[in-house]
Specification:
49% of the residues lie in helices and 14% in strands. The protein is of the alpha/beta class. Among the domains are: 129 residues, Rossmann fold (3-Layer(aba) Sandwich), CATH 3.40.50.10860; 163 residues, NAD(P)-binding Rossmann-like Domain (Rossmann fold). It has a seven-stranded mixed beta sheet, sandwiched between helices. The chain has a five-stranded mixed beta sheet with strand order 1-2-4-3-5. The structure holds NADPH dihydro-nicotinamide-adenine-dinucleotide phosphate.
């Protein structure tokens, strides 16, 4: 057998039993790769979950007999469509749109839309697959889905963004609905894009169906704290990791990659809780600011002017400086919070972080750490929180937005933030409890994968062969 899927449990369980289930999981994984050729990010996301499943199958063999794992890996529906639009020069442009409705056992499909040139089916499927378990971990009634386009919003005018969003929604509208599928934002899709998408949905359907999209503006159906939720949530999760070990964020040095929605509000919450973020980045490089990142300046540059972090270093002046090559993970830190994109933190980066004394890594982005990096953290005792647990605050608050829309209510910032903090505490407890139950104390990856899997698998079994 290649891979040794649950080798670490070998000492504690019947060797023949473990190897039987490891082989079963390996066969299932080989089948996923064969059925979904070329979708490397999807394979990676499946592998990460499968790495935890051998232990579950030993304890609960009925999951192996029911075909539940095969069913989980096959999306319920995959939609791919043409998105034609006209640029400012009058030229017709064509992009490809995607919506993968992965699993609706727990509720309507829920997950964001990503607009980025790297988007193809394999990226959307990895994100959708992750979303199933993440959404299950929140304990809220939401299934898993994801969508997006290979459209590159960088350098596009407001008019071009609007026309693209309108064309995208002109096809997407027929597949979504507040009880069916509820998209939100992700990379390249923020409040402005959700506005254009919602406006077009409303026009086509003649329905003010607030619950069809989340991440809306506060004056037209949005929720307090949704903008901040993913970044705040990941820092709440870090706070739980520290508190569980008798520590807190006060005085801690933190590096946050990215400078988009998740990164900005992770920086905000770290500073509120007494830590100091000394570096952040974008796809052009990273900036180091030993005085602590000036969040208002960064928001102005990235959020309002849609500029670069290099502009931040220029405007801020010394001691801040910009580095265009190399890796942000070269910057020494106590805590690392990757918030940019998938596979942005590799084995070399992990080795650098470990050498500089980093003790906690919490994923704000989806799958930012490579499998080799995760292995390095685990073998050197660095506490590692996977995205499906640590960044679940965004989708959890989206579910709170849906609750408010359904009851035609709107909650205060304080109340919503408290709910978010409670949800993150619940996810943290669930991960630790599950890891303990499976004999791997402190293993957040195992805890998150198994707790998410059993929740959704049990619901699917209860619903018959679906
Ligand atoms: P944004 O588009 O707001 O920001 C993305 C940031 O990451 C930007 O700073 C961008 O830099 C940087 N980035 C993107 N691609 C690359 C790359 N290839 N190399 C280096 N930097 C890159 O997205 P979000 O903040 O919303 O999302 C960030 C991550 O968090 C994603 O993995 C997303 O899936 C995940 N996430 C988001 C949630 C949300 O609520 N928004 C919820 C849960 C997870 P540049 O400006 O140069 O493009």
């Amino acid at each position: 057998m290649s891979g040794g899927l649950t080798g670490r449990f070998g000492e504690r369980m019947e060797v023949c039993e473990v190897s039987f289930f490891d082989e079963k999981v390996q066969d299932l994984y080989d089948e996923v790769v064969a059925r979904n050729p070329g979708e490397v990010e999807f394979h990676q996301a499946v592998r990460e979950v499968f790495d935890s499943l051998g232990a579950v199958l030993v304890k609960h063999p009925h999951y192996a007999d029911s075909g539940i794992i095969e069913r989980l890996c096959e999306p319920e529906r995959q939609i791919i469509f043409r998105v034609p639009w006209v640029d400012d020069a009058g030229a017709v442009r064509i992009n490809r749109g995607f919506r993968v409705e992965f699993n609706s056992a727990l509720g309507p499909y829920k997950g964001g839309l990503r607009f980025h040139p790297s988007v193809y089916l394999g990226v959307i499927k990895f994100l959708g697959f992750e979303q199933i378990f993440k959404n299950a971990l929140t304990g809220l009634p939401i299934g898993g889905g994801k969508g997006g386009s290979d459209f590159d919003p960088k350098g596009r005018s407001d008019g071009e963004i609007m026309r693209f969003c309108q064309s995208f929604m002109t096809e997407l509208y027929r597949h979504i609905g507040e009880h069916t599928d509820v998209p939100a934002g992700d990379i390249g899709v923020g409040g402005r894009e959700i506005g254009y998408l919602f406006g077009q949905y409303k026009r086509i359907t003649n329905r003010y169906e607030s619950g069809v999209l989340t991440g809306k503006g506060l004056s037209w159906g949005g929720s307090q704290v949704r903008t901040e939720a993913t970044g705040y949530g990941v820092v709440f999760f870090v706070r739980e990791m520290l508190n569980a070990r008798g520590q807190d964020l006060d005085g801690k040095r933190v590096v946050v990659s990215g400078s988009g929605n998740v990164a900005l509000y992770a920086i905000d919450k770290v500073h509120q809780l007494g830590g100091r973020v000394v570096a952040c980045s974008d796809s052009g490089g990273y900036v180091v600011d030993e005085d602590g990142i000036d969040l208002e300046l960064l928001k102005q540059i990235k959020g309002v002017q849609r500029g670069r972090v290099s502009d931040y270093a220029e405007k801020r002046g010394a001691p801040a400086y910009f580095v265009s090559s190399g890796s942000i993970w070269d910057v020494p830190t106590d805590i690392a919070i990757p918030c940019a994109t998938q596979n942005e933190l590799n084995a070399d980066d992990a080795a650098n972080l470990i050498a500089h004394g980093c003790t906690i890594v919490a994923e704000g982005a989806n799958m930012p750490s490579t499998p080799e990096a995760i292995k390095a953290f685990s073998s050197s005792g660095v506490l590692f929180a996977p995205g499906k647990a640590a960044n679940a605050g965004g989708v959890a608050t989206s579910a709170l937005e849906m609750q408010q829309n359904a009851s035609r209510d709107s909650w205060s910032f304080e109340h919503t933030e408290l709910r978010l903090a409670q949800i993150m505490r619940g996810i943290h407890e669930n991960c630790l409890r599950t890891a303990d139950e499976y004999g791997a104390p402190g293993d957040y990856v195992l805890g998150a994968n198994i707790a998410g899997f059993t929740h959704v698998a049990d619901a699917m079994l209860a619903l018959g062969v679906i």
